[in-house]
């Protein structure tokens, strides 16, 4: 079978340019959309960091001049200053937004309890597997199969229905070789278009192709996308290896797309959130309110005790240090009360994710999406890592102010220079690969299995 | 050479072909006559290896078809009732496609020579096939056979639906191929064409070869009379 002749035929039939242009336009548009979203996030984070840096410089200057509010660890830590913990963008972030637009890209960490900044985000961690963003991962997981189906649903049936298969096989070529030649030509067009389009999308999305940090994940991305496409080619060949009419093949493949790309991911999501349901938002709010009221009552009792112990202060303001020591105690009380409930959210989120990691193997669409978002750094695992690192940073940040507050120290310009800094420690490449490799292995095995069965069947395919 | 030995094909209780013994030698044109369902196309499909025999064997150039179907097919060419090639390609491109598929490596000049020899006007070589008449498509089918240098041809009602001129041109073509040494088996409903082009004529009914005649030994009228007699219960 001449690949050149088959490609020429596809070009004459108008399929090759159509596939190339469609895929390229979709992927580039998706990458530009992803880049725009990342741009908004990056600009917001940069503006926030700049604002905090200016505030810090001003406070340090005021502390040098002995301004009362600037030297008070209570005022600064619990009222004036918060440090943004920012999740940096990744080289391939524009290609797979993942949950990036749902979950926070930064947390405003202050000395107050962690619930203050955690509560501003969606704590249920919705594991939204039904892909909603128009990004390159969406185009690959949802739309690439449709392109493959459009090019292959009548691969054998149309040749048989038109009578071309009989003429072709009568030349002495085996039906298997003839059909595989057609598959190879279509695969060359789809994968050629995909690679060209993804490179264009990577450039449009600002992926640093000259750096290993950008080039290596992109290569793995290409591998994942190619194997996913190969799976759909193998499935189409498998469906075509039975002598059915073209419309039946189209229905079967469209049904497979519906089940594998839409229904199973949705059911996986539903199963995870139903089996390991997180406490409701109402419960969280109620618990927070009760914990706050309880802590406030304790703080009021503490203040009463203060004025009882210091009758000379009756009718005046409470000492600033003592007041903020009381606030710190209140925050600790609330945090202690909230900890079990927040831990429950974390536990349920971890369980949900564990279940999703098992159920993902029901759908090649889910596994591929998981792999692509993992490689792009926009999956739930990196987000959870960010949250964990932010909580650890919160301990250092609040400890910095609480320790000075409790021993009655004042802040100096040197203290401002020594303020803890948040720097996200990226998960290792090995961990990222470990999350992507199951999908690669599954797609490879499924493609080989379906393709192998199809080839065996084609050997006995009825020509007439 | 084409040969069948006690070749039979049954579908359940229905016998589509019963113990067909047939030999078509190089240079011969054997015309199989018969009504629809007589077994003509079944015989051709068995010789092509498209279906497996229930009993007996089919041979092409000495190769048993059931044992080595691809090897047998490499020795023959097949022209169905309507040659359905790729409408988006030109006649020349179709010939190139199918001759490369058969493993032939011919230059563009040689391919155009095949088309011209099959009677396709040079002006039509580079026009898309979807604009071709049925007769022109059949000529491309013949060109594929010429390019393949096939020693045997299987034709399944190739002149059905052709106008008399095109039908006559087609007959001239296969006569030329037979003169070059091809063994040709042609299934047809056309008694006149069978008498004019055939070397031998067989009449089939209900899967059985009922009668055989040398074309030179029978007149048009006698052939028609014999055919009608065989069709009667």
Architecture overview:
The complex is a heterodimer of chains A (464) and B (233). Helices cover 73% and strands 2% of the residues of chain A. In chain A, α14 (364-376) runs antiparallel to α17 (429-458). Chain A is built from 17 helices and two strands. In chain A, strands 1-2 form a two-stranded antiparallel sheet. Chain A is elongated, with a radius of gyration of 30 Å. Chain A starts with a helix and ends in a 6-residue tail after the last helix. Chain A has helices spanning 3-12, 15-64, 68-71, 73-80, 114-118, 136-152, 157-162, 164-170, 175-204, 212-240, 246-275, 281-309, 320-359, 364-376, 380-406, 413-417, 429-458, and strands spanning 83-86, 106-109. Chain B has 233 residues and is an alpha/beta fold. Chain B has two domains: 2-75 and 151-231, Rossmann fold, CATH 3.40.50; 87-150. In chain B, a hairpin with a 2-residue loop joins β1 (2-11) and β2 (14-24). In chain B, α6 runs parallel beside α7.
Secondary structure topology:
The complex is a heterodimer of chains A (464) and B (233).
Chain A (H helix, E strand, L loop, with lengths): L2 H10 L2 H50 L3 H4 L1 H8 L2 E4 L19 E4 L4 H5 L17 H17 L4 H6 L1 H7 L4 H30 L7 H29 L5 H30 L5 H29 L10 H40 L4 H13 L3 H27 L6 H5 L11 H30 L6
Chain B lengths: L1 E10 L2 E11 L4 E5 L6 H9 L6 E6 L2 E2 L4 H5 L2 E4 L11 H11 L6 H10 L4 H4 L8 H15 L3 E5 L7 H16 L3 E6 L2 H7 L2 E6 L2 E7 L5 H12 L2
Parallel strand pairs in B: 3-8, 3-9, 6-7, 7-8
Antiparallel strand pairs in B: 1-2, 1-4, 4-5, 9-10
Helix pairs in contact in B: 3-4, 3-6, 4-6, 6-7
């Amino acid at each position: 079978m001449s690949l050149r002749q088959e490609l020429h035929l596809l070009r004459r039939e108008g399929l090759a340019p159509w596939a190339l242009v469609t895929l390229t336009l979709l992927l580039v548009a998706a990458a530009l959309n992803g880049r725009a979203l990342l741009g908004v996030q990056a600009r917001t984070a940069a503006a926030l960091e700049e604002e905090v840096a200016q505030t810090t410089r001003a406070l340090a200057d005021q502390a040098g001049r002995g301004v009362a509010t600037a030297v008070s660890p209570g005022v600064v830590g619990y009222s004036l200053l918060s440090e943004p913990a920012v999740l940096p963008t990744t080289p391939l972030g524009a290609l797979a937004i993942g949950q990036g637009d749902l979950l926070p890209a930064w947390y405003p960490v202050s000395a107050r309890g962690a619930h203050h900044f955690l509560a501003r985000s969606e704590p249920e961690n919705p594991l939204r597997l039904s892909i909603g963003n128009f990004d390159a991962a969406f185009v690959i997981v949802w739309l690439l199969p449709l392109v493959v189906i459009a090019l292959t649903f009548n691969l054998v049936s149309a040749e048989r229905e038109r009578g071309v298969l009989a003429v072709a096989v009568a030349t002495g070529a085996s039906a298997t070789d003839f059909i595989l030649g057609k598959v190879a030509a279509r695969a060359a067009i789809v994968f050629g278009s995909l690679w060209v389009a993804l490179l264009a999308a990577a450039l449009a999305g600002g992926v640093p192709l000259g750096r290993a940090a950008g080039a290596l994940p992109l290569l793995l991305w290409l591998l994942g996308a190619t194997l996913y496409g190969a799976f759909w080619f193998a499935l189409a060949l498998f469906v075509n290896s039975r002598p059915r009419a073209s419309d039946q093949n189209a229905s079967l493949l469209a049904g497979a797309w519906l089940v594998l790309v839409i229904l199973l991911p949705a059911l996986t999501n539903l199963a995870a959130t139903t089996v390991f349901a997180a406490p409701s938002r109402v419960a969280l709010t109620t618990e927070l309110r009760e914990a706050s009221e309880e802590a406030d009552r304790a703080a009021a009792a503490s203040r009463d005790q203060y004025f009882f112990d210091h009758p000379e202060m009756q009718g005046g303001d409470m000492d600033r240090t003592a007041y903020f020591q009381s606030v710190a105690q209140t925050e600790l009380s609330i945090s202690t009360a909230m900890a079990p409930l927040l831990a429950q959210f974390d536990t349920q989120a971890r369980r949900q994710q564990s279940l999703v990691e098992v159920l993902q193997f029901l759908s090649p669409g889910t596994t591929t999406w998981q792999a692509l978002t993992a490689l792009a750094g926009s999956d739930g695992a990196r987000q959870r890592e960010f949250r964990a690192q932010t909580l650890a940073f919160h301990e250092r940040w609040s400890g910095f102010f609480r320790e000075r507050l409790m021993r009655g120290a004042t802040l100096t310009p040197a203290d401002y220079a020594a303020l803890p800094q948040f720097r996200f420690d990226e998960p290792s490449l090995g961990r990222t690969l470990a999350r992507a490799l199951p999908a690669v292995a599954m797609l490879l095995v499924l493609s080989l299995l379906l393709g192998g069965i199809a080839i065996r069947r084609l050997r006995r395919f009825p020509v007439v | 050479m084409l040969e069948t030995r006690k070749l039979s094909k049954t579908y359940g209780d229905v016998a589509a072909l019963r113990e067909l013994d047939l030999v078509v030698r190089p240079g011969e044109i054997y015309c199989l006559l018969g009504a629809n369902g007589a077994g003509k196309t079944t015989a051709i499909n068995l010789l092509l290896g498209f279906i497996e025999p229930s009993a007996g064997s089919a041979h092409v150039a000495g190769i048993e078809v059931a044992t080595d179907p691809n090897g047998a097919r490499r020795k023959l060419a097949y022209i169905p009732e309507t040659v359905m090639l790729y409408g988006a390609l030109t006649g020349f491109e179709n010939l190139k496609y199918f001759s490369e598929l058969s493993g032939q490596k011919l230059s563009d000049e040689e391919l155009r020579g095949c088309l011209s020899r099959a009677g396709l006007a040079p002006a039509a070589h580079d026009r898309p096939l979807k604009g071709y008449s049925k007769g022109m498509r059949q000529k491309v089918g013949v060109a594929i056979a010429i390019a393949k240098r096939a020693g045997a041809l299987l034709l399944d009602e190739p002149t059905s639906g052709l106008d008399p001129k095109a039908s006559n041109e087609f007959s001239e073509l296969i006569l030329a191929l037979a003169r070059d040494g091809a063994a040709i088996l042609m299934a047809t409903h056309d008694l006149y064409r069978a008498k004019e082009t055939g070397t031998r004529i067989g009449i089939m009914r209900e899967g059985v070869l009922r009668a055989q005649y040398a074309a030179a030994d029978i007149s048009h009228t006698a052939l028609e009379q014999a055919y009608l007699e065989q069709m009667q219960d």
